[in-house]
Amino acid sequence: MATYLKFLKFGGYLLEKGLINEMDILNARFIQKKNNLRIGEIAKAKGWLSEDDIDRILIIQEETYEKFGEIAVREKYLTSEQVEELLREQADAYIFFGEALVRNGVLSYEQLIEQLKEFNLLKLESPESTDKDS
Length: 134
What we know:
- By secondary structure, this protein is mainly alpha-helical.
- The chain has one domain (8-133).
- Helices cover 75% and strands 0% of the residues.
- The chain contains 10 helices and no strands.
- The longest helix is centred in the last third of the chain and has 17 residues, at 109-125.
- The protein starts with a helix and ends with a helix.
- 16% of the residues are buried.
């Protein structure tokens, strides 16, 4: 059970409780995918990077596991100031899974907060989390 809790995601928790269904998960993830843009996508929209630039950076990233922005600066596609701006814009527009459920009318804001509290408490009280403290 402890290992199960370690990998349990909030959507799976709500699904098990019968508060949402699989279609609710898909719809919430769709909203996230549409709104949670990667910094390369934001840079392209600003005209700072081309599709080819993004592909080159991603190829390097696959081999080095470095962050996209670090590669873009090192390879002189972007300045560090541009990367900082992109990261700020990305963070400002980010939509969390629970927020997407509220936007879709699946849960109320109050329900979301209550379920997040229960979910986090469950994960904190799992035997595996207490094993780390000993």
